[in-house]
Amino acid sequence: MHSKRIVVKVGTNVMTNRNNRIVGPILKNLVRQIAYLYERDVITVLVSSGSAIAGKEVLGSCSSDDKSIRRQVYSSVGQPRMMRHYYTMFHDFGMRCGQVLATKRDFAPGKYRENMINCYEGLLKEGIVPIANEDDAVSLSMSMFSDNDELASLVSELVKADMLIMLTDIEGLYTGHPDHEDSKVLRHVRVHDNVEKYVQENEKGEGEGRGGMESKLKIAKMTASKNIPTFIANGKDENIIIDILEGREVGTKFTV
């Protein structure tokens, strides 16, 4: 068994370009870092978005007028495509991965949760990288996660992770809008620090695809309060996961 476990969540905004196409080299760089850490006794659980975008790449369009059905169709078609990407890339580094799809009910106390624990423990014991995502094809509104940040937090608690890293397309939590010259990245935030005011400034006037920091801040604080150090960092930086594990000053760190 590996001595350290981490959970890495990668969002759609990290893995796609301006045309909403998945960028293979970004995924491969992510896998490279996970493989590097694996050789240094750190095993990763990867929480990955991207199935809906991958489905759109395959289908182009969906004829249904129902938004929920379109999401189900795209995700159902895209999930195998995403896993094919990951399977090939991990194989290139001599590693194995496995898919774990879940709905929110799977984390509720009882047999579903116990089943999830057994699944993750079985994969981790074999040195297999679990790749988690919401089971969008069957999720109902009452059993959906708010987003994959919430899923990553629940997985971190489930596997007793030593760290959660949430990768986005900016450096971390800023003191103002990320594009403003006088804005700075907050390197360390404690769960009781009042930093929510900065999120309002960050997101004011932002368009679609730039939001989400309010959710990330909430999840980061919640996860850190359970003694799981949590980072928000830029997933497009070449060695971001390795830099965090080696203690470099990158991203925003959340602790108790």
TrEMBL record:
Q: Which Gene3D superfamilies does the annotation name?
A: Acetylglutamate kinase-like
Please state what class of enzyme this protein is: transferase
Q: Which UniProt keywords apply?
A: Amino-acid biosynthesis, ATP-binding, Cytoplasm, Kinase, Nucleotide-binding, Proline biosynthesis, Transferase
| UniProt subcellular location | Cytoplasm
* UniProt-annotated binding residues for substrate: 49, 136, 148
What organism does this protein naturally occur in?
A: Psychroflexus torquis (strain ATCC 700755 / CIP 106069 / ACAM 623)
**In which pathway does this enzyme or protein participate?**
Amino-acid biosynthesis; L-proline biosynthesis; L-glutamate 5-semialdehyde from L-glutamate: step 1/2
Task: Please give the catalytic activity noted in the UniProt record.
Answer: L-glutamate + ATP = L-glutamyl 5-phosphate + ADP
Function of the molecule: Catalyzes the transfer of a phosphate group to glutamate to form L-glutamate 5-phosphate.
By sequence similarity, the record places it as follows: Belongs to the glutamate 5-kinase family.
EC number(s) per UniProt?
2.7.2.11
All copies of domain Aspartate/glutamate/uridylate kinase, residue ranges:
4-234
Name assigned to this protein: Glutamate 5-kinase
On whether Protein biosynthesis is a keyword of this UniProt record, the answer is: no
The GO cellular component terms are:
cytosol
Leader peptide range in chain numbering: none
Q: Name one GO biological process term.
A: L-proline biosynthetic process
Note one Pfam family from the annotation: AA_kinase
Question: Which NCBIfam families does the record cross-reference, listed alphabetically?
Answer: proB
The encoding gene:
proB
Annotated GO molecular function terms are: ATP binding; glutamate 5-kinase activity
